[in-house]
Write a structure and sequence with these properties.
With about 270 residues, the chain is α/β, with parallel strands linked by helices. It is built from twelve helices and ten strands.
């Protein structure tokens, strides 16, 4: 999927919502556990209930890996279901991979070719030869960690190096990498005050923004400082939507929460477009 196609979907749905699929068997409705593949059945129900309200789904790979081969089979079924039934949805493998070049090439092949995701999240700590193998895939996107929403982000990301915060060095350096037009960036919503500075460095890139909702980030603040002339934001919500209820009404409650976010986004977009 190209970024123009993603933007077209944003305009069509009046939404830039990404729904995170972080499936924990301890949190899903108990009756689903009796099914052959409760992880997939939970995902399928959430997807069917929210596909018209969001433009992206983001399976968190750790929540599938934790269940071994059965988890990987659930992941395969989930991504196949999205691609076959809702092909206009932008898919993100939230894997946070990052390793030496030949290993990164294999990770990229796994997520882009075998599983056919549109994008994958990566960690840039090892530098360009760990990221460029992902960038080599046409019409696939690499979403690089830039400034994250966790408490430990301040351990390294905001340290001043040669008079400038480290995350700014990372952003600026990444713009020199081959096929950097395929880069997107993760920026946590709980750091909304940083978006102005980030947009000075990457004004046209899409930003994947976790932390709105359960983690306390403000959608209005993120949009005020982070939105560009093609929206340029994918706002992720996971727990606030998929675990809105643990009962048999979990599908209806998930849709209610997704609709709340979509409607808020529609209002914001009406003021901009």
């Amino acid at each position: 999927m190209t970024t123009q196609q993603l933007f077209d979907q944003i305009l069509l749905k009046k939404s830039f919502l990404c729904v995170g699929l972080d499936v924990d068997l301890n949190k899903i409705p108990e009756y689903l556990l009796a099914l052959e593949d409760p992880i997939f059945e939970f995902n399928k129900a959430i997807i069917d209930a929210t596909h018209d309200l969001c433009v992206s789904y983001k399976p968190n790979i750790a929540f599938f890996e934790a269940y071994g081969i059965n988890g990987w089979m659930s992941l395969q079924k989930t991504i196949n279901y999205i691609n076959e039934n809702y092909p206009d949805i932008f898919t993100i493998a939230d894997a946070k991979r990052g390793d030496i070049g030949n290993t990164s090439s294999m990770y990229a092949k796994a997520f882009f070719e075998d599983l056919n995701f549109d994008s994958v999240t990566v960690a840039p700590y090892m530098g360009k030869d760990s990221v460029e193998p992902f960038l080599a895939f046409e019409n696939k996107h690499t979403i690089m960690l830039a400034l994250t929403s966790n408490e430990g982000a301040f351990d390294f990301q905001t340290l001043t190096v040669d008079g400038k915060e480290l995350y700014k060095h990372v952003l600026e350096t990444s713009k020199s990498w081959k096929n950097n037009e395929n880069l997107m960036y993760v920026v946590g919503a709980t750091k909304a005050e940083y978006f102005t500075e980030i947009r000075k460095i990457v004004p046209n890139s899409f930003l994947l923004v976790p932390g709105v909702g359960a983690q306390g980030g403000s959608l209005a603040e993120v949009c005020k400082y982070g939105m560009n002339d093609k929206i340029g934001l994918l706002i992720n919500s996971s727990r606030g939507i998929i675990y809105a209820s643990k009962g048999t009404d979990f599908v209806e409650k998930a849709r209610v929460e997704a609709l709340k976010m979509q409607q808020e986004m529609e209002v914001i977009m009406a003021d901009k477009f």
